[in-house]
Specification:
There is one protein chain. The protein is α/β, with parallel strands linked by helices. It folds into two domains: 199 residues, no CATH class; 52 residues, no CATH class. It contains ten helices and seven strands. It is elongated, with a radius of gyration of 31 Å.
Length: 307
């Protein structure tokens, strides 16, 4: 289907857009996503930082962090698989960026805007738009509290609709480039968009690097193995839950059966049970019921049974 490496693998995405020689690609991508009042003209890629989360901290999420000339920080993450805690982690990435600016003793006024861009190869929201932007706004008046918080979610599968992205053609083209399934699709996009020709050339160069190909293969294997392990863990958990549920159900059934049996014996020997005795019976444990059943044999009154 294709010879080039898949940029939907987070490591490949970072190698492609984080390389110094491809800085122009990253700048154009940020401009097309953020659409800032003043175009981004320069960007510094910060050292990579791994974030071990997930089941027993076995998965490493790779994100590309960049600082603009203005000091604003941008976090870009490619995510191929949905995770249960995706939305909290989306917000956590922004909080981590924002709080990392403030050194001890520094004034809050020194804090600057931060944005997180999550590119997802799955559908997360019910809306038809492929690009969603979340900000801090008043619920009814929609008044912007601050522009310091901005979360961008790009959902690649939504671009399968031919008309999707018509209002953001440049960004839609980037997303089609990232989600292309064949080299022919990449070639077609490169012919239509000059910046994507540069992106394809850069991807071709990266794909021709044996070390990069080996790193990408190992990363893809790691993600596949993690996904398999996570599915296996969930399946085992469901099986254990069902087994525990059956065991608990059997135990509860035995207790309820004993309760009905003791109640029947009490009614036969002492007649209709008063409310207080019925309440004691309903609250009794398995051990209580066993003791009361023995006492019924010799007790002359209800008080002696429940003594």
């Amino acid at each position: 289907m294709r010879w080039t490496l898949d940029p939907k693998v987070d490591l490949v995405f970072n190698l492609l857009f984080g390389a110094e020689r491809n800085r122009g690609l990253l700048i154009q991508l940020l401009n097309d996503v953020l659409r800032p009042a003043s175009p981004v003209v320069s960007v510094e890629v910060l050292p990579p930082r791994v974030d071990p989360t997930g089941v027993e901290a076995k998965e490493i999420f790779l994100d590309l962090r960049a600082r603009l000339a203005s000091g604003e920080q941008i976090d870009v993450e490619m995510q191929a698989r949905r995770h249960m805690a995706l939305r909290p982690r989306f917000l956590f990435y922004w909080a981590r960026l924002y709080t990392s600016q403030l050194e001890r003793g520094a004034p809050y006024a020194s804090l600057q805007r931060c944005a997180v861009i999550l590119i997802a190869d799955f559908v997360e929201l019910e809306s038809s738009e492929f690009h969603s932007v979340f900000q801090a706004r008043e619920r009814t008046r929609h008044e912007l509290l601050t522009d310091h918080l901005e979360l961008h979610l790009l959902e690649l599968p939504k671009l399968k609709d031919a008309v999707a992205g018509a209002d953001e053609p440049e960004l839609a083209a980037w997303c089609r480039f990232l989600s292309a399934e064949t080299d022919d699709q990449l070639t077609t996009l490169a012919m239509q968009h000059p910046i994507l020709k540069d992106a394809k050339d850069a991807l071709d160069q990266l794909s021709a690097d044996p070390e990069a190909r080996e790193q990408a293969r190992r990363r893809a294997d790691e993600l596949a193995l993690y996904q398999y392990g996570a599915q296996l863990t969930r399946a085992e958990g469901r099986a254990e839950g069902r087994a525990e549920g059956r065991a608990e159900g059997r135990a509860e059934g035995i207790v309820e059966g004993s309760r009905r049996f003791v109640k029947q014996l009490l009614s036969v020997k002492f007649g209709a049970l008063p409310a207080e005795a019925a309440a004691r019976l309903d609250a009794g444990s398995e051990a209580d019921l066993a003791q009361w059943a023995v006492r019924i044999l010799t007790a002359k009154t209800l008080d002696e049974v429940f003594a």
